[in-house]
Amino acid sequence: SCPHACPQALRVPSELLTQSVLLSHRATCHPRAEDLQGHRWATFSREEICAYQSQPTAEMWQRCARRVTEAIERVVEFAKRLRGFLELSQHDQIVLLKAGAMEVVLVRMCRAFDAATRTVLFEGKLAGPELFRSLGCPELVASIFDLAQGLSALRCSESELGLLSALLLVNAGRPWLQDRPRVARLQGHLDVAFRVLLRRTRREGLLARLPSPGRLRALCSQHLEQVQAFRRLHPGVVSAAFPPLYRELFA
Amino acid sequence: LQEKHRILHKLLQNGNS
Questions:
Q1: Mean pLDDT estimate for chain B
Q2: DSSP H or E run through A162
Q3: Cα–Cα distance between A244 and A239 in angstroms, integer?
Q4: Do A176 and B1 touch (CB under 8 A)?
Q5: Which residues of chain A carry a pLDDT beneath 50?
Q6: Interface test with B, best of A248, A249, A250 (most B CBs within 10 A)
Q7: pLDDT of residue A3
Q8: Exposed, middle or buried, A37 (CB in 10 Å: 0-12/13-18/19+)?
């Protein structure tokens, strides 16, 4: 509808865009989609859980910060492979990733969530919320598990998760964007692609069951608050021992 | 903004891995 205003990359039919997003999602997710089917991940044993629970708080925080950072790096790669993302200004790429990367990490978690045992894949095995006790933020951990459980129950396809993730990132409502209309155009294309997919697969009911934007935002705020609380209790640890990308985004 | 997010900026600049 705007052939002169839209760069070439943004004028693609819905299905092509969905395919492209799916490829980007599959290429940057861990575990890979093929490993999700009939997975054989072991559950952590009692002894292993106790070992994690006995770790000093600072060490457990550092360990989890590393895992989160690895996930964020994959989301950055996902963003770079999203059609149109790299055509946004560098400023806006940073704004969108800073605001949305953690939301995507949280949504992606549901892929490796085992509803039967209420566990999530962590460092190669399935872990329940009690494994993270030494972090000292039980409400945050519980909220994350609740989100993963809720999303897991929706049984989203990889295409749905890919588009949902893309829409979490390409959000023209984020503050501080320089070229909001440009982001909105890209968001619009993704939105149409998502709706076309849902109509084609008769999954329109999914829209009403997704976690609200407010819920994801609140979870990310909760995470930031806990990072601040940790810093007050363990001054210097974040600067000295946390991954630099984690510090940049959350501290 | 780029000054405060050097690592993110660098990741965005690098070629795909």
A1: 88
A2: helix A158-169
A3: 8
A4: yes
A5: 1-6, 8-11
A6: A248
A7: 45
A8: exposed
